[in-house]
Amino acid sequence: MREDQRGQGQGRRDRRGSGERRTGTRAAGGSAAQAAQTAQTAQDDDAERRRRRAVFLRELNEAKALRERVQPRRARAARMRQAMRMRTFRW
Question: Region Disordered: which residues (predicted)?
Fold first, then answer.
């Protein structure tokens, strides 16, 4: 589930102003510009999320490599356990 889909319909606050009514269609004035801005914001949010995820995964791999260097016996045992898991996994 994407971040922008979380909490829909569960006590989510209405973002419309006090004078605007809930209707099935948008008002004609500025709706295209507003939709374009919303799409751009969604793309920026998605790009930012992907960038943060890449940084996280990079740091995670660095931490795993450090752990292998610092604790070689435990790391070797962990690799053996993982290899055993992969050999016994049924597709």
Answer: 1-50
C-beta of residue 41 within 8 angstroms of C-beta of residue 82: no
- pLDDT tens digits along 46-67: 999 999 999 999 999 999 999 8
The amino acid that residue 77 corresponds to is A
Confidence class for position 68, pLDDT limits 50, 70, 90: confident
62 membership: H or E segment, kind and range:
helix 31-70
**Distance (Å, whole) CA 26 – CA 48:** 28
Is 0.90 topped by the overall pTM? no
Going by C-beta distance under 8 Å and a sequence separation of 6 or more, which residues neighbour residue 79?
A: none
Distance CA 41, CA 3 (A): 13
